[in-house]
Amino acid sequence: MTMQRYRYNSLSPDERMGLARRPFAETESLIRTVSPIIEEVKRNGDDAVRKYSEKFDGVRPDPVGTDPENCSSVLPAEQSEALELAARNVFRFHREQVVPSLSVETMPGIECRKETRPIERVGLYIPGGTAPLPSTAIMLGIPATVAGCQTIVLATPPGENGEIPPSIAWVAKKIGAKTVVRAGGAQAIAAMAYGTETVPKVDKIFGPGNRYVTAAKMALQQSDAMVSIDLPAGPSEVLVIADSGADPRFIAADLLSQAEHGPDSQVVLAAIDGFNTDVLLNELELQTAALPRSAIARQALEESFVLEVGSPDEAIAFSNLYAPEHLILNTADAADLAEKVQHAGSVFIGPWTPESLGDYASGTNHTLPTYGYARMYSGVSLQSFQKSITFQTATSEGLWNLGPTVVTLAEMEGLQAHARAVSIRLEKLEAEVESSKKRVRNKRSGG
Amino acid sequence: MTMQRYRYNSLSPDERMGLARRPFAETESLIRTVSPIIEEVKRNGDDAVRKYSEKFDGVRPDPVGTDPENCSSVLPAEQSEALELAARNVFRFHREQVVPSLSVETMPGIECRKETRPIERVGLYIPGGTAPLPSTAIMLGIPATVAGCQTIVLATPPGENGEIPPSIAWVAKKIGAKTVVRAGGAQAIAAMAYGTETVPKVDKIFGPGNRYVTAAKMALQQSDAMVSIDLPAGPSEVLVIADSGADPRFIAADLLSQAEHGPDSQVVLAAIDGFNTDVLLNELELQTAALPRSAIARQALEESFVLEVGSPDEAIAFSNLYAPEHLILNTADAADLAEKVQHAGSVFIGPWTPESLGDYASGTNHTLPTYGYARMYSGVSLQSFQKSITFQTATSEGLWNLGPTVVTLAEMEGLQAHARAVSIRLEKLEAEVESSKKRVRNKRSGG
């Protein structure tokens, strides 16, 4: 197996930056490609979804949206038990992400609060392809139930028989989805964004997908559909940091578990001096040969690289530049090293934590920022299914304390009506004080 | 003053939905307008920023980006004290939004964590216009400092003398901004997104602005600039709910404090039976006449409407359909009513809490979702300046417990290399168990 090899301390800052850069993705032309599909679904609803499903997937789903109860979800016990355990761990981790209401008295008489509310209607897209992906349905569906989203819509491409896979239907029932959309691609995304005769309109769309799905999400998030999206998505990635104590067979298996996703998967190994890269490359060769998806993995690996580094700190420095979706720390000091991670989607610590654990069942979410977006985006979490609202209450005393400051600031900004909304209230308070003083005086002189 | 008037229970669901809909904003053509500016700033840096600043604002800033120490920030004591108090309240409320690290043992030997990290480099856009807006600089800058963002860049259009207003410079110094960008419009947004000779490239751009600024943010968030944005922005809005106990003079002042923002400001009054709308309309006339921005306010009010409702619950039902940026509850049961709010940016409870308090100094953030986006977006908060990373650590026992489930799920999804990354580790554990058994047997037979 050949992988490109670089030495960290022989590279200039610009060259390091270059290695951290992903291949350019052309979104504009993709958006132009999906726009007519979106427009047609907006206008013609289910008919348009059926038309494009037939064109791209060779099936005409009818009805497009249906109750999950109409879908077969029979699975071998081993499979349903595995899904059950994964769902339970994901539930446990996301349930603990509930943040209590916050209440702060910022000054006497001024109370500020922050509370969360569920996003009412959410659409979950589960890609199709060579095999169904029930794990993605769990990763999106379980947090939606924890958040308390009222309407969950789940879309996935149907098989040749027009039905969705039983494993996806199993999860749809588990999460109480209201509607299953038997369609994929831009047409399914558009159906959830605008709503159709059989598909409820949603407020936010989640889930990975091919570049047409991603382009549709991006186009819709700034359209008249009034819908937001979870993340900008790109090809999946892993960066592995290995030192002399790491088993090259484990490292090879971890690199391959990323490489098998697709020929455009990004795979990087930061090998700390002492790690035996030659043994690794040999292992990669052996393990690749045994894979059903070896051609895909081989293509991905040929675009990937090994970066030789002199220390764990150099490795982390590059990782923070690269901002990987997945970061595996297979080093003696992995737990300490994790503290230095500034930008990553999810981190896998120590020799017994392959990325696969998080992909399926450790409890963390596998919907993560790719393409370097871990610099500024979080992966999907409970918070992705909620929004927060702030509340404030001023007592008359609070307004008395804070009002004059607000009048000064509003006048600085030339917004007299803003100032007036405060001063008209201060005047009423003053008048009340005056009239009560008068009452006291009258009482005194009278009594 | 004339305002359109409707009666809630005479409207069909479709008509209610129609009232809740905002005027359509054409983003696509705006994006086409700003694209050449963005491209030129990407290519030519500061020169392009200067060119467009001269074209649109009549000034040629040189240098474009500068240290805040080079900007005059002398203010009258009353003004700097007001800014200081506002900053302190905003700091207090946002500091309490810090969420501690989360650690959950989802099953024996599997630890999952969620931690936050600051977004490293942030760009804050402060619009210009008739007067500087130091309050917006506080609302964006203070949370950035609480989050620990390393590089804060602040952009605002310069005055005729090429300098930024002293009040903005005052805040820039207060928040430790690294660079002040003396430019506005799409050219300033592009400068922060790509970086120029004097402007550091940022990871996320915050702040309101005119439609060209908004279009530039939207175009850049899905470009090769690798930048995210805070919120889709639109014209500012308020929905006021008033009952018979509400003082019509307060209500008029509150409606006007929104209406003075611009002719496209959205102003809605939900008047519960018993509230005297005729007195209100008269008050509106009187107060409008006294405003310096009366022409703007009058235009906005003519596009606005009063919705007559039979009860607080009807009012909240419409408010949740409308999803206002600002919601003022001026009713006897305001605190209870607040519990029923599902979709809003920020809520102002009771007679002594005008919106102006939150706009400037209560402590809540005034950067809020407009246009109905409160259904799925939160306002700016501490979390807007952070992202979260998940971590997981499996012990060998943890992998032993969870591994077989992951193998089953990976095989269901046809991802053999994912399964292999687990099974290769399980085999090593088995081998270790076997060899330790052997050692025990050998010891027994030997000893």
Features:
homodimer; 6-stranded parallel beta sheet
What can you see in these coordinates?
Two copies of one chain form a homodimer. Chain A is of the alpha/beta class and 447 residues long. Helices cover 46% and strands 17% of the residues of chain A. Chain A is built from 16 helices and 15 strands. The first copy, chain A, has helices spanning 13-20, 27-44, 46-57, 77-95, 134-147, 166-174, 185-194, 211-221, 248-259, 277-289, 294-302, 312-322, 334-339, 355-360, 396-412, 416-446, and strands at 4-7, 65-66, 102-107, 110-118, 121-125, 151-155, 179-181, 204-206, 228-229, 237-242, 266-272, 305-309, 326-330, 346-349, 386-394. The first copy, chain A, has a six-stranded parallel β-sheet with strand order 1-12-11-10-13-14, sandwiched between helices. Chain A has a six-stranded mixed β-sheet with strand order 2-7-6-5-8-9, sandwiched between helices. In chain A, strands 3-4-15 form a three-stranded antiparallel β-sheet. In chain A, helix 2 crosses helix 8, helix 5 (134-147) packs parallel to helix 6 and helix 7 packs parallel to helix 8. Chain A is globular and about 105 Å long. The termini of chain A are far apart. The mean pLDDT of chain A is 95.
Give the SSE map.
The structure is a homodimer of 447-residue chains.
Chain A: E1 4-7, H1 13-20, H2 27-44, H3 46-57, E2 65-66, H4 77-95, E3 102-107, E4 110-118, E5 121-125, H5 134-147, E6 151-155, H6 166-174, E7 179-181, H7 185-194, E8 204-206, H8 211-221, E9 228-229, E10 237-242, H9 248-259, E11 266-272, H10 277-289, H11 294-302, E12 305-309, H12 312-322, E13 326-330, H13 334-339, E14 346-349, H14 355-360, E15 386-394, H15 396-412, H16 416-446
Parallel strand pairs in A: 1-12, 5-6, 5-8, 6-7, 8-9, 10-11, 10-13, 11-12, 13-14
Antiparallel strand pairs in A: 2-7, 3-4, 4-15
Helix pairs in contact in A: 1-12, 2-3, 2-7, 2-8, 3-7, 4-5, 5-6, 7-8, 9-10, 9-11, 15-16
